[in-house]
Each structure stands twice: as structure tokens, then as C-alpha cells.
Amino acid sequence: MRALTVCEPFASALIFGGKNIENRQRDLRYRGPLLIHAGLSLRWFTPENCEWVNKRWSGCPANPIAAMHLFKHRLGKVIGVLYMDAPVSLEDSQKSLWREWATGPVCHPCLLPHPVTPFTYRGNQGVFTIPSAHLPADVIAAADDICNGRAAEPAARAQLMEPRS
């Protein structure tokens, strides 16, 4: 199954916090179910990043030390699966429900996030493959639900996508 390493706190925001866009420098050239791997790097736990995420998702502390402490158990692990759709431009994303999280330049819509029991796996750059033999049963079931239209977005996610005043 295909996977993408995303640095914390953004990986958790994709799976648990209503982040509905993955911002990249280029098109990842992948559409479909995607495992989200929380990277090991701590460099994204800056005051600016944590504050920015906290304004959009209260589950991420604005204080980077508190955020590191909260998310440290997820580092280096696959934490969820979602559906990655075709990318949209930053300009187009600013006119949609994705505007709150979009920074571009290429914005990949991320739909139907589903947390899974975290499991350790080595991350990589870009979209990479995790062999099915390494996937726990709940990961396979979640991906199957997404592929067969049985996954439903939680009501709370729809509320998180509404712009804050």
C-alpha cells in the first residue's frame, strides 16, 4: 500500500484534526488510499508552526514543547489512512473548503481520514510503498472501507472545515 511521510504536527492534523489538504512543492502523482506516516523530524515543532496549526485545530498545543510531548508517541509510525485526491492549485483551493489549510504551491485534497493502530515503519521521501505483509488488519480494513465507499467523514470534521471568524 502507498504511504507518505508527513512531519508532525501536520500528520496528526491530517488524521485527527480536520486538515483536509497536504501542501507540497510538486504534484505527488498519486490518487487513492494513502497511509500517513508521522516523520521523525522535530524541526517542524516551531512556535510559528504550532501556533498556526493551533488556530485551525485546538488539539495541537500552540507551545512547541507541549506539542512535541503530545505527539512524540506517533513519531516514526503510520497513524492513519485517507484518500488523496487530484491536486488543486493554491488559487483554486483558496475558493473552497480547503482554504483554511492551503498554503501550496500544490494542494492535495485529503479526504476520509481514518486513524489506525499506530505501527512503526521507516519513512521515506515522496510516496512510497509499504508491503501488505507489514500491514495490520485494521489498516487493511480501513483502506478497504475507503476504497469501497464505506468510510464516512465524522460530523466534527465538517465543522472543522468551516472558516473561523
Question: What is the gist of this entry?
Answer:
By secondary structure, this protein is an alpha+beta fold. The protein is 28% helix and 27% strand.
Which features would summarize this protein structure in a list?
165 residues; alpha+beta; globular
Structural description of this entry:
This protein is α+β, with helices and mostly antiparallel strands and 165 residues long. The protein has one domain. Helices cover 28% and strands 27% of the residues. It contains six helices and seven strands. The protein has helices spanning 10-16, 47-56, 64-71, 90-93, 137-147, 155-161; strands at 2-6, 21-24, 32-38, 77-84, 88-89, 106-120, 127-129. Strands 1, 2, 3, 4, 5, 6 and 7 form a seven-stranded mixed sheet that branches.
